[in-house]
Amino acid sequence: MDNGVTSIDGSILEGGGQILRLSVSIASLLNIPIRIFNIRGRRSNPGLRAQHKTGLDLIHKMTPRSKLLGSEISSTEISFLPDQDHDNYHEDLTFSADTKTAGAITLLAQIALPKALFMVFMPNLEKFGVSPIPEISASYKGYFPRGGGCVDLQITQPLLTSINPVRMDDRVAKKMCNSARRLIERGFQPSVRIIEDVCHESHAQGNGSTITIVASSSNQCILGGSSLGSPKVRPEITGEEAAKDLLASILDFPKACVDPYIQDQLILFMALSKGNSRIRTCSPLTLHTQTAIKVVETLTSASFTITTENLDDRDYCVIECKGIGYQFK
């Protein structure tokens, strides 16, 4: 720490944009002045890209009287300095962000307020007692390289002041669903109930398709698999990839409560919660999860413990955290 400013090395572990997004989100919530250097240091094109700059500018607008220094394209160092004597916004406000180029809207949502990432993340977030759950809707989709998608994310000021700990085209669409269904039914005996929901888009930027598969177990574990299609890939292949993604989590680690992609998304909420959280997941932990724990422990007083649990001759990672009991002000 230098002059009250906490420094974060953006090249540690995962070494990408995740460190930037998570660090700035925590700094905004807890009013912690931070400096991030070596931004995206493990990438072939280090420094800020348009998407990262847009996310920084967005959370800067959302944090009253904060200062943001060094937020230029290709910059490898930024400082984010919240006003430590100023509380959060309490009135209804609307913020907008446009990367002006192709970028992931969900990652903009992640840095601005870590309360969105579609069907698998929202139910897991609800387990922490966050209510009402943020509403996210795509006005229209945009596919790489053209981009141009538009998403509305509506977040109502939560009814709670702290977070609870957790113990825990039509033909193309049909082809994707059918191929995914065949693989899933082959993997489960007896068969499981499968509900299909095909989304019809009135228009989109570029040509592409997506499929997301969500599995909900009898003990309320929620896991997901997804795949992004393109005109160059047969829709059957896209559907199979999503199914394989999901089945890898379920069949390889049947007693895991969260999939590898949700692991790191829950770390911040475990740290903010009031009490002790415990999550059993697959082993080993993803690099994103290890990075999230490192960043959160650097910026907060939350403490994490990782242990190995052997069940039915499979090793699982158990993540435990004593949260800081963050109070919304």
From TrEMBL:
Please list the GO terms describing molecular function: RNA-3'-phosphate cyclase activity
Which Gene Ontology cellular component terms are annotated?
nucleus
Q: Which Pfam families match?
A: RTC, RTC_insert
Query: What region holds the RNA 3'-terminal phosphate cyclase insert domain?
Result: 168-250
GO annotation terms (biological process): RNA processing
Keywords for the protein's UniProt record, in alphabetical order:
Ligase
Domain RNA 3'-terminal phosphate cyclase, which positions?
13-119
Q: What PANTHER family does its record include? A: RNA 3' TERMINAL PHOSPHATE CYCLASE (PTHR11096), RNA 3'-TERMINAL PHOSPHATE CYCLASE (PTHR11096:SF0)
Q: Could you identify this protein by its name?
A: RNA 3'-terminal phosphate cyclase
Organism of derivation:
Lepeophtheirus salmonis
